[in-house]
Amino acid sequence: MSQYADLKAQIAKLQEQADEVRRAEMGDVIADIRQKIAEFGLSAADLGFAEHRRRGRPPKVKKEPLPAKYRDPKTGASWSGRGRAPTWIHGKNRDRYLIKE
Q1: How far apart are alpha carbons 11 and 13 in whole angstroms?
Q2: Using the 8-state DSSP alphabet, how is residue 97 labeled?
Q3: What is the pLDDT of residue 11?
Q4: Other Cβ atoms closer than 10 A to 88
Q5: Given this model, what pLDDT does residue 59 score?
Q6: What is the pTM of this model?
């Protein structure tokens, strides 16, 4: 056999030995980590394993409704002054419907 083939055989043999030792030690390491997680009450977020962020647009944040700026004295309906004007104020003087606080 050539020297190169001998070295490749030694590498394969050493790799098998390394894999066996790794498998044997991994059980002890996992048991030790689990014991420490239970002892300190750690969570995945504490260890930096937070959930993956979702792709795409972030969820819309619900905004609180704006306070009413106008009120209809007849029905008690209110309007914030934004968006399409309701029929009870459309085309009329808005100063009459202002809510005075």
Answers
A1: 5
A2: G
A3: 95
A4: 15
A5: 82
A6: 0.41
Q: What's at 73, amino acid-wise?
A: P
Cα gap 53→47, rounded to integer Å: 16
Q: Contact, 70 vs 97, CB < 8 A?
A: yes
pLDDT < 50: residue spans in the chain: none
Nearest by Cα to 70 from 53, 54, 87, 58: 87
Could you tell me if residue 81 is left (phi over 0), alpha (psi between -120 and 50 degrees) or otherwise beta?
left
Asked whether the beta carbons of 69 and 81 are under 8 A apart, the reply is yes
**Alpha-carbon gap, residue 19 to 23, rounded angstroms:** 6
User: What pLDDT does 77 receive?
Assistant: 93
What is the C-alpha to C-alpha distance for residues 95 and 70, in angstroms, rounded to an integer? 9
Residue 89 in contact with residue 97, Cβ under 8 Å?
A: yes
Which tokens in the block code for residue 7? Answer: 């070295």
First to last CA, the chain: 99
